[in-house]
Amino acid sequence: MHSTLNFPTIPPIDSVSAQKAEERQGMLTKPAKSLGRLEEISIKLAGMKAEPFPKVDRKAVIVMAADHGVVLEGVSAYPAEVTKQMVLNFLHGGAAINVLARQTGAGVTIVDIGVASDFEPSLPGLLHRKVARGTRNMTKGSAMTRLEAEKALAEGMDVLALVAADGLDLVATGEMGIGNTTPSSAIVAVLTGLPVAQVTGRGTGINDAALAHKIQVIEQAIALNQPNPSDVLDVLCKVGGLEIAGLAGVMIAAAARRIPVVVDGFISTAAALIAVGLVPDVRNYLFSAHQSVEIGHQAMLEYLDLDPLLDLNLRLGEGTGAALAFHLLEAASGILREMATFAEAGVSTE
Length: 350
Description:
By secondary structure, the protein is α/β, with parallel strands linked by helices. It is built from 13 helices and 6 strands.
């Protein structure tokens, strides 16, 4: 099942800018490589943005919201109505992501890409991009049609273009969707070939019996739908989610514009698996924000060869870990641009 979408070309990392950043790091008033990963981050940013001394002032968090038919199987501790309620909370500025985004000066864009209930058309701040009223129950058949999956990918690319229209230095991916750890676990199980039990966690905090049931539900969905691991679009359609598709579109469009993507936790990284599967060079523009508590996240990061920036026992989603990681990227950029070299400071290197 190959996509009929025309994906943009992803520019190569600019090695000249990266080299200039690395050279400057070697001249700053500190022992060589003494700022560790902050130095690596600054060099990566330079290569991604094709700017030897990159700024990361203009930041955005894009939160995609959608529902999941598989919730009918009892895989979540919360009912599906919570997706809509949380979207309203985001719009009122009262969720964790709103607080953390404010601290780092990032804008937050909330997108209804597949919430099962409707919102007022005039609701301030909400982007109405609903592809369907949630996915179908993947234990009974494919979660979405190819048309729906491609539409959600296209909407994600379009939303990124809209948010980046006035200039954007960094984008973080966030999501809201009750039940969405279930499709995320299914995606990583299919793509890595690992047993479902090894990549399925407690999501919203379900008990042991519910976890065993959730694993069984995912195994059933995979057995029924037979997603093809060498065809990520097929995997997305059969066991994915609309917000996962939308975020994959965001990542592809951002990479095409040389905008580094700060990937949040488990669900966002499932979207990264889809994005990289569709357009492999997207991987060069990804930062993994944090190590999620969800057990399948480690397998995803190893598959993508990404090293998370933080490990804070987070498992909320919404883009919260990515918003926190913004501070590290700002620190890395500031060190590179603002710190004096030995020559500038008149400090002896002998």
